[in-house]
Amino acid sequence: MMHCLNADAGNAKMSVLERRLNWQRDQFPATYYVSENDLPGAGAFFALNNDDRGIGDVMVGGAMKPDPGTENGWVGDLSRMILNYGNRSEVEVSRAFPGTVISPPATAPAGVGKEADFGSSTANSKKRKVDKAQNPKGSSEEIFEEKKVKVYADEESKMTGQNSNSNSKSTTTTTTGSNETNKKNTTKGPSNGNPKASDAPKTDYIHVRARRGQATDSHSLAERVRREKISERMKYLQDLVPGCNKITGKAGMLDEIINYVQSLQRQVEFLSMKLAAINPRLDFDIDNYLAKEIFPSCTSSFPSHLVNAAHLHYNASTQGISGPIPEIGRTISPPVVSMADSFLDSSCFNQIQHLTWEDDLQNLFSMEYQQGRPAAFTSQPFTGFLEAGNVKLEM
Amino acid sequence: MRNSAQLRHEFLKAWIKSLKIYSNLKKNMSISHRKNAIKLSADVAIASITQKAKPSASSHRWTQSLMADAASSDDGTNRIFVEQTLGYKLGNRKKSPTTGLMTKCSKKILRNNIRVFLGKSRKRTTPKHAKAGSIIANKGVEKRTRLLKRLVPGGEDMDEISLMEEALDYIALLQVQRDVLKQVAAVAESLRNLKSVN
Known about the structure:
Helix content of chain B: over 70%
Number of helices of chain B: 7
Distance between the termini of chain B: 45 Å
Oligomer: heterodimer
């Protein structure tokens, strides 16, 4: 038994990754076990988030929310990651998941003893643990990760090598073990061999481990997994929707989400109405400038002026407006006003006067910035740009 | 990984481009028409961005429903516009509103049958009184999920989990739209004020 424990410790590590692997590759034979721990995939998710390569770093650093600094990045990442559900089947599986019925596949007789040991060794780890950063501990995050996290290549190979014989149970343990209240761990190993050269999965199943002291029949397991998934996503939504931190419970959260979506939609509608009112013709020509990219060549060809100006303006407004708006407005106005005066004197302003509104913004920008020093229009800090800019950013 | 600033940048580009296409298609629009054009082009822009980001994202529900909505408007120009912007032909996508209902029903039937079949092998997992409270609580949740489904485009047929994901994406993209529109509106307004000063 002792050697089993060691193997189990290793197994625990690998089993999570392997499970993710399996999920990723849709390789599983049908075992079905529920995660024992409550730790949502949040940690892993955010770890994935932080990793630019999108590789599933198994940094399950506990159920931590990403720091607010990454919020902006996270939003984009989120949609990108959500869009990146590379494996369509994963999504479909998850959808099918609530209805999935587990059937006992034929699996290698990897040794029920092993599982039992594994179960016992982790039996007390009911509470979620803050795992060491690189250790994919226990079953904590697998449910969510299985969907989103890609596994390191080397870890994959390592796992497959070691897990070639961990093809254990199946549903036989789950179904027959309905009397057991102990946690059961049923791990399904990948097929022997390189998981990277993944065989097409025959069935899509999710590994779930039953928690200690809870029912282990397939339906409640499925429900539990489903509930956990929903709560996962609720957490992400909490981060996305401002002011949701205090609210617990699905109904309240959903309320906030609905309110936020409605308010966003209304804002977009109002803004588009405003734009339509301002502009008799839909002719925002910023596109010309932004299309050609950025960096100011000091040769100051006409387009590059526009490019820089428009781009910088846009960047500035991007950075500035997304921040605390009133303060920025206040700090902005003095330099703008002063610059406006200087521009007033410049000859270009007379030209601006002649511009009708229908004229392209392009012309406007060109007038304004031709006078400016080209050198100034590099990727400058916000304030530096504003000195050259003549636009009041009002919010 | 694209951060939000990049997203906004790309959205702005796509949006301006689509606005241009639209204004080429139609002249002399009324104000409400313009507003709708702005919104439509914004939506199309956002859809095209997500498609570019991840080709399989076109299978994303809301993009599809967006296209369907845009394409099915009575004014043929909308459809032309959308197609031009996206660069491909939209298939005639008929959204059958009952599919979601049917799949849910069928799933339920299947599940109930299985339960009946398995019969007594299922233990009662929670006591009865505990269920009552959760049932009441779930009613509120159900109502709200229905609301959310109506809000999120393409959300009618989805189950809860994917609805959440769609909502996440939708919120993120709405934020992008709103921010960009805000900035452009601010610029436009300030420019107009500048002009009117003189």
